[in-house]
Each structure stands twice: as C-alpha cells, then as structure tokens.
Amino acid sequence: MAKNKFDITAEELAKGLGISLVRLYEVVDFFDADSKDEWELKEGEHFVWLIKNAKTRTFSEFGAFAIAKYLEDTQPQNIWDRFKEFLFQYKAKLRRAFIRKQVLNNCSSLTIHNGRIYLSKSDSVSILMTSHARINKAFEALLISDPSLEKGLDFNDFEDKRFYSLRGFETICHLLSKELTLKDRREWCKEVTIAGPEVMQKLMDAEMAFESKVEAAKKAVRKKDGDRCQATGQKDSPAQRMTVNVHHIFCRQHYPDIAASQDNLVTLNKVVHDNFHSWNGKVPCTADRLIEFLAIHHPEAETLTLRLHYTNKVYQHIKTKSLVAAK
Question: In whole angstroms, how far apart are CA 318 and each of 88, 250, 264?
Fold first, then answer.
C-alpha cells in the first residue's frame, strides 16, 4: 500500500465508506481520544492536517484502511466490501491521473496530417514506458495479424520518423496489454489504451481551437492594417505584386499567452518579414528586436516604430517576466 500520499479527502472517504462526514469525524475523534489503545491515527503516516484549527484532514491509503478496519471490527454492518470497492476506484483514479500526466509530459510530437492526429514512436515508447524494440516487435506482429492496418491511416512517416495515428497507437496498446509478461505492465497498457487517445484528442481539440483564435486575430489585423506592409507602406497590386505576412511581435513560441492578441500582431511584406527573421536569428522575437531592425533597415518606418513602443507598453508585464526568467 502506498504511503505518504495524503490525497484522500474526508468527504471522499466518508462517501466511500457509506457513512456521513459527521460519523467519520466521530471515528477520528475516537482514534485521537486514547493514545494507549490499539487504535491510533498517526500524523504524517495516516493523515496530514488540511486546516488544523478546523480539525480537517486528508488521509493516506493506510489511514483510510485503518478507519475502515476499525468500522469493520466494531460495527455489525459489513463495511469491508464497500471499502474495497472505494479503494479500487481510488487507485484507478490515481492510475488515470498518472497516465494523463505521463501523456501530457510526452506528447510534444503530436501533429495533424490529413485530419488525423499522429504521435511519434519515441513519445509512444515514453508513454508506454517500454522500449523501441518492444514497440517495433508489437507493430510488426500487428502488420501480420491485422491486414487492415495501413499507412496514412494507422501510421505514417514524417521526416524519416515513424508516427502512429491515435487508432494505431490504441491498437499497439491493446496488443501489449495482452502480450507483455508482467501483469503490472499489461495493466498499465490497458489503462493507456483508454486514457491515452482521449487525452491526446482533447489536447489537439484545444490546440485547434486556439489556432482558430490566432487565425481570426490575424485576419482582423490584416483588415485593420489594410493588407498593407506597416514597414514600407506597400500593398499588393497588379503593378507591384507582393505577399503580406502577419508577424507576431512577441513570438508565439516564447509568449503563447498573447499569440491570439491583435496588439501583438502586425502585417509585413514577406520580404521584410523574412529579412527580419534572418537578421534576428534564433533570438526570441520581441518589440525591441523589431524596433532595432527597423532603425537599421527601415528608418523611415516611424509610424510602425511608435506602434511597437505602444506594444511594449501594453506588454510591459511580459518583458518584466522575461527579464526575471533570464536571470
């Protein structure tokens, strides 16, 4: 039984045991009443205080077990089966939470291709806590046993790296949940089969919703700027063809919380945009960097420079945060 994990609330425990919260605290008070009897709850082992003055606590599995055992031994009602069911559900909740964390920490490769979500083999290995060799073996077996698996539907290769669609990933998980030698590894893969694709789908749904907001903001800024380069004043015309890009003043990679803000966007001629990024190199884009670039290459862009100074003012908290992080 896991120790020192105090995440069972009194409300959860009372509900799991089928007793009222008042009754639970009556039992806890009994445990506290006589330190010489065989029933004892120890702080740091069975519980920790949530708010000591209010006498509210959270319990470990060990503490929950002690309370359930006391009730089983001292009351005629059969509470043990109820407790075992509660403990089973509680452990399942912990496993699902850990799996979600494992997925969230190992899904940077998630990508969408032809409307399908794909995850790299490398991230799949990390989520399943297995090896590349074992994943390869499972996938080779699947290709033989299931001829319906096909490239572009269940798996694909991007930049010479193998990726699995959510359906392909789920199929691999399902196979490993049956064939792995150790039971705990089989159970882990079984849980991942359920929780993994669900978490990844929700992540990509959120990302696509955010991407829609970014695109809507870009469209609004293009309209506000009249589809005109704010550095040169140029606009696409039959006589002078050009492409306008919408530039993130503070780059979205380092400042994602303002990526969909119109104040953080400006339209630039593609040539100017490309030249800035080439000049800026790998340094994060900021208003100050663009101001410096304009002073060197487009000193006539006074209106845009003033606009960038205003952007700096709007996002002063962003600049301060970045300076603190750099230290």
Answer: 46, 9, 11
Q: Is the pTM of this model over 0.70?
A: no
| Nearest C-alpha neighbor of 81 from the set 25, 2, 21, 16 | 16
Residue 76's pLDDT is what?
Answer: 60
pLDDT per residue as tens digits for the range 146-181: 888 899 999 999 999 999 999 999 999 999 999 888
DSSP state of 312: H
Count of residues in the chain? 327
- The more confidently predicted of residues 76 and 153 is 153
- pLDDT (mean) for 260-281: 96
Closest of 105, 106, 130 to residue 188, by C-alpha: 130
According to DSSP, residue 284 is labeled P
User: Distances from the Cα of 99 to the Cαs of 95, 139, 202, in angstroms?
Assistant: 6, 22, 14
CB 184 within 8 A of CB 206: no
Percent of the chain's residues with pLDDT above 70: 93
Residue 214 confidence (pLDDT): 95
Q: Of 55, 42, 40, 56, nearest to 8 (Cα)?
A: 56
List the one residue out of 104, 207, 118, 218 whose CA is nearest residue 164. Answer: 118
Q: Is 28 exposed, middle or buried (0-12, 13-18, 19+ CB in 10 A)?
A: buried
- Residue 213 half-sphere exposure toward CB, CA atoms < 13 A: 14
Give me the amino acid identity at 248.
H
Phi-psi region of 214 (alpha: psi -120 to 50; beta: other; left: phi over 0): alpha
266, 231 Cβ separation under 8 angstroms: no
In Å, how far are 141, 213, 237, 303 from 233, measured between CA atoms?
61, 27, 12, 10
The pair of structure tokens assigned to 238 is: 């039959």
Least confident of 116-125, 135-144, 289-298, 313-322: 313-322
Q: What is the pLDDT of residue 5?
A: 77
